[in-house]
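can u do me a favor
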């Protein structure tokens, strides 16, 4: 059995981290427990009731307070034994391949606790991507709220562009390199609109941010503000036709989940080239 013992950042980070473990557990048929996902469990079909379609996967949130205290202590003091094993990542910049033979031997033979952010199984994430999407379908009323705003957005448009305006922590992360003001987003939106307008397409925009948005800064564009809920905004973006935004696992999950082409804005001076939109694969 594998127990995920460390929270991996925010919502999208934890969705991806959990998704990679799920793909690995399905492929190699071991039990997987992720109590670190407890605060988001109510939003998704499988995590809300621990029903992963017959696979030995569970969240069991009531275990997390205990594990949060015990795991760091056990890693420091006990290390490994005949009954349990710890995999702790020291280098968070280098992904740990979950197809590692030693890891799989321990996962299928002992209670194995992982402690780190970059555990990945890219090969099987792609192979089991449809199962991952199914497990993370929204529950009610979140699904209905997303349905409602998307139907409203698409009522009188041909192309709906999701704009992820990541603010908040991005003001200080990497010295604010990806913290763009409204003028930057406005310019990129005009470029996107211009591209599709040439072919006679009507274009509208869904703006999602973790800060308040001033609609007056987007004059001349058909815009709708998101629902201001982290999960509903994420899944609203996944229902758009295209996504633009700064580098972020939030946009990546929306692209992966909805199979929506996305483009990362990596510079304030970047010209938007529609040919560069790509699907995020995990």
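np, heres the sequence
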């Amino acid at each position: 059995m594998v127990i995920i013992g460390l929270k991996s950042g925010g919502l999208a980070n934890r969705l991806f981290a959990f998704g990679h473990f799920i793909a690995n557990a399905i492929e190699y048929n071991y039990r997987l427990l992720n109590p670190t996902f407890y605060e988001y469990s109510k939003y998704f079909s499988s995590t809300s009731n621990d029903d992963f379609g017959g696979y030995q996967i569970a969240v069991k949130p009531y275990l997390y307070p205990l594990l949060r205290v015990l795991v760091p202590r056990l890693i420091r003091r006990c290390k490994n034994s005949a009954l349990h094993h710890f995999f702790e990542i020291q280098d968070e910049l280098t992904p740990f391949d979950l197809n590692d033979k030693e890891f799989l031997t321990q996962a299928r033979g002992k209670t194995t606790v992982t402690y780190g952010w970059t555990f990945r199984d890219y090969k099987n994430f792609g192979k089991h991507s449809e199962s991952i999407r199914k497990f993370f379908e929204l529950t009610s009323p979140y699904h209905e709220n997303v349905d409602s705003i998307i139907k409203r957005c698409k009522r009188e448009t041909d192309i709906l562009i999701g704009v992820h305006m990541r603010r908040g922590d991005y003001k200080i992360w990497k010295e604010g390199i990806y913290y763009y003001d409204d003028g930057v987003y406005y310019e990129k939106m005009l470029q996107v609109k211009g591209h599709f307008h040439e072919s006679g397409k009507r274009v509208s925009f869904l703006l999602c941010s973790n800060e308040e948005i001033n609609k007056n800064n987007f004059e001349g564009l058909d815009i709708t503000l998101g629902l201001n809920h982290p999960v509903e905004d994420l899944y609203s973006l996944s229902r758009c036709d295209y996504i633009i935004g700064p580098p972020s696992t939030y946009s990546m999950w929306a692209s992966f989940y909805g199979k929506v082409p996305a483009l990362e804005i990596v510079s304030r001076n970047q010209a938007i080239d529609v040919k560069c939109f790509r699907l995020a694969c995990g």
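Residues 11-28 form the longest helix (18 residues). hope that helps!!
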